[in-house]
Amino acid sequence: MGVITNERDIYRGDTPTFTFNIYKDGTAYDLTGATVTFGVKEESSSTTYKVNRACTLDDASGGECSIKLTVAETTIEARAYVAELQVTTSGGDLLTVTQFQLNILNAVVTA
Predict the structure, then answer these.
(1) I need a surface site. Which of 3, 38, 53, 101 has the fewest CB within 10 A?
(2) Which class is domain 7-105?
(3) Mean pLDDT over residues 28-40, rounded?
(4) How would you list the strands of the sheet with 35-41, edge to edge?
(5) By the 8 A CB rule, do 24 and 87 touch?
């Protein structure tokens, strides 16, 4: 998976919300007209996504977006995955904002 120093842990079957505040050169990145995509794969070189969909722009001009994962998206094999956040500007430019390790942990209690 390469060297990824940032990790987030979630439990299988949970529905967490991740909120991202995007900055460029110390200033909030204006997301007006942009699409922010959250992707999760087993490895960065994999061609199959576990999650691949747009985030909600909570405060576009302030650079804030979020995504709430579904039960189906988190009821996957407990292991480490690579997650990435990418911005597509209204002009079609791509900006990979962050990449981190997403750890899916086995829950003790299941619904």
Answers:
(1) 3
(2) mainly beta
(3) 97
(4) 7-11, 94-105, 80-88, 35-41, 49-54
(5) no
